[in-house]
Amino acid sequence: MVNHFEPAFLNLLSSGELAERVRLAHERLKACDICPRRCGVDRIENPQRATCHTGELALVASYGAHFGEEDPLRGYYGSGTIFFSWCNLKCVFCQNYDISQQGYGRPASPEQLASMMLQLQEEGCHNINLVSPSHVVPQILAALLIAAKAGLRVPLVYNSGGYDALETLALLDGVVDIYMPDIKYGDPALGRRLSGIPNYPAVNQQAVKEMHRQVGNLALDERGVALRGLLVRHLVLPDGLAGTAAIVQFLAQEVSPRTYLNVMDQYRPCHQANLYPELARRITTKEYHQALDLAQQAGLTRLDRRQPRMFRKNP
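Request: output the structure for the sequence above.
Response:
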């Protein structure tokens, strides 16, 4: 456990490197390669042509204290989530498709994003949890520079679908404290069929290994609240479709057996899932426990277990 903490980005702020990362990231919007789709669009001049439909300003669907996240994130006062609109994945079963694929949300300037971060900190949230950030890293960095100068001092959580470019993760090295990627599939054909991308496992596994290299295993404070490290999410699909066995073996053997893993049981048919026979039902209790058993058999020992807590609005 860690008792003394300062967010990683403060070192980059004091050295001037954070401002340089903002500049470099903004330049890349002109022929965008921020995410692995690398659409090459000038998102400043022609945002409507970009795969993510997002221009120079990020779109935000909502923000606030969230008590439904993993125990180390929600803590006692909630995780300060900012939900970004659009996504670089096109998952046919997305439970938030109105945000991720229909673009529900409003443009937010860097100053407005920074204000959201500071407000969430003021409300007592343990962290700033950036949901679906992969396509808006330049906008996040610009906001973070403003917020850090104004007193932001809580960990930054990068909560992504796991389809992240190594070059963009390099911009986040020393910025992000907690990486929380999904690992969705073990089979590239499934990623193409269900999320519209041809190479999900290869890109995802490279990204997860880089995330772990940057921040290591999840470290907690004396209350069990996350400060720094990697936390992975894996959604169990019907009939073992997601390839859980291969995914947990990858984590245990190529990342770390001490990886904190949330094996998620909340799959339900949403969006276009009913058009795919293999996705047209919820998972069973047996399927979920089989996934947990696979994780334990692979040697993973830190599985998310929800514990009842007395939540408080203010620290």
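Strands lie at 58-66, 79-84, 106-108, 128-131, 156-160, 178-181, 219-220, 226-235, 260-264, 302-303.
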